[in-house]
Every structure is written in C-alpha cells, then in structure tokens.
Write a structure and sequence with these properties.
The chain has helices at residues 8-11, 39-52, 68-76, 89-98, 110-117, 137-143, 148-157, 171-180, 198-206, and strands at residues 58-62, 81-86, 103-107, 123-129, 158-168, 185-186, 211-216. The protein is α/β, with parallel strands linked by helices and 219 residues long. It binds S-adenosylmethionine (SAM).
Length: 219
C-alpha cells in the first residue's frame, strides 16, 4: 500500500502502446504537433527560439499549473532563463502577467516543444512535477506524458550533464519512470524551490508520500 487516498493510484499501469505519429509528429498533441508552423502561431515558436538563443543556462518546467513553484525559481535564480509549458490557457495567461524577464510562460504541449522546436542539447534542466496520471485508459493511451518517445526527446534536448527531474505521488507511475530512465545516470535532486507546486503542497498537507528522481542523459 502506498498510502494514497485514491485507490486507483495502487493499480495504475502505463499505457500499453504509445501512438507514434509520423517521424517528427506527436499523435494527440494539443492543436497538432505542426501547430507552430501555422502562420498565426509561428511567432510563438520564434519567441521561444529567441528566448533560448542567448548563451547561459535554460531550465524548463512541464505542466506548471498555477506556476507558484516556477515563479519562485525564476525569482531565486535570475541567471537562469526559465520556460514554463502548460496546456491550460488561463494558467498561462495568469503566470505570464506576473513573469519576470527571465521567465517565458507558454501555452504549448511539451511533447511538441521537445520533439520539434527545441535545438538539441540546449536545455540544462527539465522538471516534470506530478504529471497527470490519466486514470481513464483511453485518455492515458493518448496523453500519458512520460513514455519512451518523450524520454528519448528529453535526451536530445538536454545538454550533456543536464538533469531531468520527475516527481509523482502515484507509486506505480514512479516505477514506470524509473524503468524509463534506467539507462540514464542518477543525479542529485536539485535544490527545492522556495514554494512547492500546488500538487506537492496538497500531498504534504494530506500526508501523501511523493516520489522524486533526477537523472542525467546517457553519455
Ligand atoms: C497533475 S497537474 C500537476 C501540476 C503541477 N506540476 C503541480 O505539481 O501542481 C499536471 C499539469 O500538466 C499539464 N499538462 C498535461 N499534459 C501536458 C503537456 N503535454 N504539455 C504541457 N502541460 C501539460 C496539465 O494541464 C496540468 O496543469
């Protein structure tokens, strides 16, 4: 027993097969994985590339939701440029209003951004905190974030020695994540943010155990 209040967390299992899409596509991505080639969205991809262009460290958080944690990281570490990706528009607009110049909040599917828009070896760190478990099997098959394909894209996007950080409160999801990163080097967990994420805060106050891992891509 993991001590999780939701009994589904005991029996979660990964999607059987991940839809592959074409060579460069992500099946089921928000708006389609070629969204940012469309004229009305192209400027967003260009803004991302401009944000990445200057030298210096870049960290990315996937699925920031309320963004409290990401905002605290960006304020604490102004020498790092932080990118936050979130598919929920209202959350993105709310964070963008408060973002300091070293934080780009962007409504984009992380799978598309890693696969199609991030120059290889550009990111120093990618944080995925409490990815949605998608209890419904059909949705999980389409939307599960941490899959072999996503982890391969992470390996491409990270600089050698860069770090992927993952946290979850779903014990079998963490076992799945550990298997996905089995060929990577375990790394120390980065310093905690001054403010925990919303989900982490809820787990802390409800006494729900959380599982954390950090890994560096294989050389
Ligand atoms: C369970 S919530 C966790 C939010 C936050 N990380 C936390 O710890 O409180 C997962 C978040 O990831 C976002 N999300 C899910 N799939 C995503 C994707 N492919 N790209 C970007 N964000 C995604 C969801 O909209 C949601 O806000």
């Amino acid at each position: 027993m993991s001590g999780h209040p939701d009994p589904r967390a005991e029996v979660w299992r990964p999607a059987d097969a991940t839809p592959r899409g074409g060579e460069d596509d992500v099946a089921g991505a928000l708006g389609g994985s070629r969204l940012f080639e469309q004229p009305q969205y192209r400027a967003e991809a260009e803004a991302y590339r401009r944000f990445l262009a200057p030298p210096g460290p870049v960290a990315l958080e996937v699925g920031f939701d309320h963004g409290h944690r990401l905002l605290s990281l960006a304020h604490a570490d102004p020498a790092v440029r932080w990118v936050g990706l979130e598919v929920r528009e209202r959350r993105v607009l709310a964070l963008a209003e408060r973002a300091p110049p070293n934080l780009l909040a962007w409504r984009a599917d992380a799978r598309t951004v890693l696969r199609r828009l991030t120059p290889p070896g550009r990111l120093n760190r990618v944080d995925v905190l409490f990815p949605t478990p998608w209890w419904d099997e059909g949705k999980r098959a389409k939307r599960q974030l941490l899959t072999p394909i996503f982890v391969a894209d992470l390996a491409q996007a990270l600089v050698p020695g860069g770090v992927a950080l993952v946290a979850t409160d779903v014990a079998p999801y963490f076992a799945h994540v550990q298997a996905l990163f089995a060929g990577w080097q375990p790394a120390p967990l980065p310093r905690p943010a001054a403010r925990p994420s919303q989900r982490h805060r809820r787990c802390l106050s409800a006494g729900v155990p959380t599982f954390w891992g950090a890994w560096r891509p294989p050389a």
